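Sample intake sheet
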Amino acid sequence: AMKLQSPQFQALFTPGLRSVAELFEKKNYELRIAGGAVRDLLSGMTPQDIDFATTATPAEMKEMFTSAGVRLINNKGEKHGTITARLHEQNFEITTLRIDVVTDGRHAEVEFTTDWEKDAERRDLTVNSMFLGLDGMLYDFFNGYEDLKNKKIRFVGKASERIQEDYLRILRYFRFYGRIAEKTGDHEPSTLQAIKENAKGLAGISGERIWVELKKILLGNHVNHLVRLMYELDISQYIGLPLDGNLEEFDRVTKNIQNLCPKPMTVLTSLFKVKDDVTNLDLRLKISKEEKNLGLFLVKHRQELTKAMGPEPLRPYQDFIMDSREANTNSKICELLKYQGEEHLLREMQEWTVPSFPVSGHDLRKMGVSSGKEIGTALQQLRDEWKKSGYHMDKEELLSCLKKL
């Protein structure tokens, strides 16, 4: 048996957790850390959020917490068996062990159990199916720890059964593969077969849920390998990707953006050939307006908006920003530079502050230009001169320029 005593594990024992543990112990209910947090702790990481599992039913937990004067937060999770208690400024999400009774590929009806193995059995991947006692004892019914050490991603039990309980698990398989696996192509053939046979089930999953997973896949490792796999296994068509995605461009861009922290949409757009591809993605996945606009921007400008030859390679991008009337053009240009793999220019761009045009209509009136139309024309001419100078000319130089004009 394995007992964990890492600093990351010790650090979880806040005053809040100590109080929670005490309450459960008093009542003889078992309480363990579950799922992703166990995986993270075993990998030597500090988990972002921690789920707890218990043998106590929601009713028993409510009774226990209420009589101890503990505040309970929203009870939306209650019918799935989840109670959220707040102690010492910290929320604790605790779920009763459960068995899926009926599943329809999207959600399950559950009944409660006190059997830890039965609960582990209905989880998706072996690396996500472990429990950790508060004494550091590991409870691992499906060799999850072995798989984690060997960087293997496997479904709990039969892949096809797990997938049919919730088709989104296909994408979760890819996401954790991109997070944990060391090399590409390390899949069990039977798993890929099960994914291919059940790909169509993704058609019934909401776009919002798919987009959450897909974004994480796009920012993980092996993204090139995983997206190609989505095409090979006939998944792509059910999740809004173009039927004939541009995989050569995708290859190129995934190499360009390594280490540049692109937005998910920047990576994905390389698959798109035309702007309809962005629109179709949006129809299926309900992406945000900002994401959609970034996709359209990249499809439109990725070819012709490129660096200049000569001493000022950044100039075309700067001119574009200066001519633009939109607020977040700057961040879109940065994404374009990542897409193009222009690492040095990206750094320069991030240090560049957009200069403000030094002359106003007020200055021109002081110089005796009175009619609004003339002021408009003069300002435009000066703006052009200013642009030609690389935005270096100051107010004096520009106004003396006006005298010449």
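Comment: The first strand starts at residue 31 and ends at 34. Residues 246 and 271 are 5 Å apart (CA to CA).
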